[in-house]
Design goal:
The protein is mostly beta strands. It has five helices and 20 strands. Helix 5 links the parallel strand 9 and strand 10.
């Protein structure tokens, strides 16, 4: 793959359609109908641009695994790219696997290593990383459980390859859009599904978000390695819940189930066309530390549009702490009793 600068890449973007490579938006690619299935009739090849949201090492094991069996084993590559162009919204996953459920399409070790070199590095040998603005040429894409994935159609033929070209390195990551579980779930804990993507999981699918005012209801997936095992459950104070898919990176010690925090990551959709939303976690914050005579709340991000509240009676009554959590590293609550609980609430 030839490395190209921003000017060249943008010219190539405009020229692609002239040579039969249609430029598509994430909004169009991920469009669904009332049953959650795709509306777009696919035409290949197409090109799409976005900012890389994760390093592949965060999500799945990349290394070739001798003796692997089954399509969900062996080396796997997955990154999400998010729309940044004006008028576009959403994100799309790029995926490939050492193993295939289609006979004769598994990769041997030399070919897998070659494929990883092709999709992980540009022509100069520079590794793609989160924050890079890239252009992807897709020659195959499959719909799976609510979203369209750019992949190789589970075939190892080169005619199904996708390629990435660097448009601009080290672009700032899109700001994590702040939401609460009430933005994703009804009061009965069922998923909010909106085919028009004005609200609910579809509105944020494939995007970098921050979910506030949650704590862990289950912790059994923390620190594990297999994709299917890396599941914890987050809950808010209304009974709404959301699966958290834990990364392969170290997030530190597991928070106590009484600790309120925020989680930054990628809103993904798995296991259903109209629900199955989950957060792939990349960061945990804020961190609440309660000392002998005060509480110190540390924030990992800005919380504009939120107020900090506390409860001293077991989550029944909430009071505004009168400390705006915007660009604040530490908030001190010198009068806090040791049983005080905190939360961040989006201002109506």
């Amino acid at each position: 793959m030839k490395k190209i600068g921003m000017r060249t890449a943008l010219l190539a973007w405009g020229a692609a359609a002239a040579y039969g490579q249609t430029a598509v938006t994430h909004w169009d690619l991920q469009s669904v109908n009332s049953t959650g299935y795709p509306q777009r009739v696919e035409t290949f090849p197409f090109t799409i641009q976005g900012v890389i949201l994760n390093d592949p090492e965060e999500m799945l094991p990349l290394a070739y695994q001798a003796g692997a069996s089954g399509p969900s084993s062996g080396g796997q590559f997955q990154v999400f790219i998010q729309a940044v162009a004006a008028g576009d919204r959403g994100g799309t996953a790029l995926y490939m696997s050492q193993m295939s459920f289609i006979p004769g399409n598994n990769y041997d070790e030399p070919t897998w290593l070659s494929e990883m070199q092709r999709v992980r590095y540009d022509g100069s040998g520079r590794k793609f990383r989160k924050g890079d603005l890239v252009e992807v040429t897709a020659r195959n894409a499959l719909f799976y459980n609510g979203k369209r994935n750019i992949n190789e159609g589970h075939r190892n033929t080169s005619s199904n390859d996708f390629d990435m070209a660097l448009v601009r390195p080290n672009t700032v990551l899109p700001p994590a859009e702040a939401l609460t579980l009430a933005d994703l779930k009804h009061a009965d804990d069922s998923a909010i599904f909106d085919e028009f993507r004005g609200t609910g999981g579809e509105h944020w699918q494939g995007m970098r978000v921050r979910i506030d005012a949650i704590r862990l209801a289950t912790t059994n997936g923390w620190g594990l390695t297999n994709w299917s095992d890396r599941m914890c459950t987050a809950a808010d104070d209304t009974g709404r819940t959301l699966p958290l898919r834990m990364p392969l990176t170290d997030l530190g010690p597991v928070p106590e189930t009484s600790t309120w925090f925020s989680a930054v990551g990628i809103l993904n959709q798995e296991n259903s066309a109209t629900n199955g939303y989950e957060l792939f976690v990349q960061e945990i914050g804020p961190v609440l530390e309660i000392g002998a005579d005060s509480a110190r709340l540390s924030y990992a991000a800005d919380y504009e549009g939120f107020v900090l509240e506390y409860s001293d009676d077991g989550l029944n009554t909430w009071t505004n702490l009168d400390a705006t959590p915007v660009k604040v590293i530490v908030v001190e609550d010198a009068t806090a009793p040791t049983n005080r609980t905190y939360r961040l609430r989006k201002v109506d």
